[in-house]
């Protein structure tokens, strides 16, 4: 993979390129969002993002997960993408151990209903016990069943409030969170003023259709300006790292 910005470079080390900025997570948890989009703004094909990706995109995906203390995802995305537990290779695990992190980060799922398959490998085969952020009015039966395989945290009365969820993670020792969507959760994080970075893969494809973009919900009161940290390229796929100005 080569760098185009801020300076041309022929062979980029991804772990160094995506290293967290100095001081990240000291005041509050650092939130980095990772998404993929087609040239016309689609984030999925037939409901899943994988058909937009490429081997280089999957490498970036793995590196970003390896750098995070927690992966955060909405329940709809976890179901649509058929999430399994985080799996990292030996080199990435070694790098995590050297940084004082656990070998794999846990995944935290945001859900109001707790309508999740508790017998799926996502829960039963996870090395790091998943976290479920839910609401005070969550179905008691679902919570009772899920408590066998996940830690439940109430982070709002009728809707999960991102700030409460992130405050819990920070109090638990997390410094960095990798947000993996979906668009509704992304929008909630942005509207709460909690996003620090966006890592956006731009696939050289057109999709059309009426699917959502990387953010869902009402138009922001004003555009959120971002600065380019770097722009990488491989095989026609572009990899933006953008910081909230």
Largest sheet: 10 strands, mixed
What is the gyration radius calculated from CA atoms? 18 Å
The dominant shape is globular
State the total count of DSSP E strands. Answer: 10
CATH fold group: Dihydrofolate Reductase, subunit A
Strand order of the largest sheet: 1-9-10-8-2-7-3-4-5-6
Helix/strand order, N-terminal first = EHEHEHHEHEHEHEHEEE
User: Helical element count?
Assistant: 8
Helix content: 25-40%
Summarize the helices and strands and which ones pair or pack.
Layout: E1 2-5, H1 14-17, E2 30-37, H2 55-67, E3 70-74, H3 75-80, H4 90-98, E4 107-110, H5 121-124, E5 131-134, H6 140-146, E6 151-154, H7 162-171, E7 176-179, H8 183-191, E8 197-202, E9 226-234, E10 237-244
Parallel strand pairs: 2-7, 2-8, 3-4, 3-7, 4-5, 5-6
Antiparallel strand pairs: 1-9, 8-10, 9-10
């Amino acid at each position: 993979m080569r760098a185009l910005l801020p300076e041309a470079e022929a062979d980029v080390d991804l772990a160094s390129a995506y290293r967290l900025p100095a001081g990240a997570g000291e005041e509050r948890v650092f939130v980095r969002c990772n998404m993929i989009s087609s040239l016309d703004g689609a984030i999925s094909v037939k409901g899943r993002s994988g058909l937009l990706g490429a081997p280089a995109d999957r490498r970036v995906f793995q590196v970003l997960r390896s750098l995070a203390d927690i992966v955060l995802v909405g329940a709809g995305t976890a179901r649509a993408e058929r999430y399994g537990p985080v799996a990292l290779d030996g080199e990435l695990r070694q790098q995590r151990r050297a940084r004082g992190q656990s070998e794999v980060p846990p995944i935290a799922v945001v859900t109001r209903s707790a309508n999740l398959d508790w017998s799926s490998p996502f829960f039963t085969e996870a090395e790091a016990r998943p976290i479920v952020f839910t609401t005070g009015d969550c179905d008691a039966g679902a919570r009772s069943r899920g408590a066998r395989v996940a830690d439940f945290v109430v982070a709002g009365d009728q809707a999960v409030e991102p700030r409460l969820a992130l405050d819990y993670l920070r109090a638990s020792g997390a410094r960095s969170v990798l947000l993996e969507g979906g668009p509704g959760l992304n929008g909630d994080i942005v509207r709460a003023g909690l996003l620090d970075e966006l890592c956006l893969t731009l696939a050289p494809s057109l999709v059309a259709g009426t699917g959502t973009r990387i953010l869902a919900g009402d138009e922001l009161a004003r555009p959120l300006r971002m600065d380019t940290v770097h722009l990488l390229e491989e095989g026609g796929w572009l990899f933006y790292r953008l910081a909230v100005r």
